[in-house]
Write a structure and sequence with these properties.
Layout: H1 2-9, H2 15-19, E1 22-24, E2 35-39, E3 44-49, E4 52-57, E5 61-66, E6 73-75, E7 93-94, H3 99-127, H4 129-137, H5 150-162
Antiparallel strand pairs: 1-2, 2-3, 3-4, 4-5, 5-6, 6-7
């Protein structure tokens, strides 16, 4: 997620907006994270905040991933949280409890990871490896992934998620 913050702060212009996201800032006088929303032609939605991401498919369901915590959570809310500027304003999210919810979480997580891989591929094609390298160098933590491997790593993680099996109560 650090790299997406670099994309937002990019001196030549906000890369998320260039890609097709819309931005909604918190209301004046309120604190919180801007909301970046993207909807593809199939009706799948990705929402990014500084504190996490939300991926939803209108007919299937919605998944939330908190920043720094790789625990997919589902929400039953049908409305997208496009006016949530803090984590506390999100709809109630829960870990999958049943086999059906587990399969849904795996499906949504896999789809979100594929989307992230495609976005990173676009960044590389648009700005080249040197841009992502500069993002990684500016991070205060040491990265274990090279800039040219980011897109492929998201896609590999998606492929591994496709092979997961959910065991209810497990």
């Amino acid at each position: 997620m650090w790299c997406w913050g670099c994309d937002v702060r990019r001196a030549e212009g906000n890369l998320l907006l260039h890609y097709g996201f819309t931005r909604q800032r918190p209301p004046e006088g309120k604190t919180g994270s801007s909301v970046y929303t993207f909807q593809d032609q199939a009706g799948h939605n990705l929402i990014l905040w500084g504190f996490g991401l939300f991926y939803g498919e209108f007919e299937r369901g919605n998944l939330y991933l908190k920043r720094y915590e790789f625990k997919p959570r589902l929400t039953l809310a049908s409305a997208l949280p496009t006016s949530a500027y803090t984590q506390e304003q999100l709809p109630i999210c829960h870990s999958p409890h049943t086999a059906e919810e587990g399969h849904l979480a795996i499906h949504l997580l896999t789809a979100a990871l594929h989307w992230l891989g495609a976005y990173e591929r676009w960044v590389m094609e648009t700005l080249g490896v040197s841009y992502r390298q500069s993002c990684i160098r500016s991070w205060h933590k040491k990265s274990t992934i090279r800039a040219e491997e980011i897109a492929a790593t998201w896609l590999e993680l998606a492929r591994k998620c496709e092979d997961l099996t959910f065991i209810a109560g497990g």
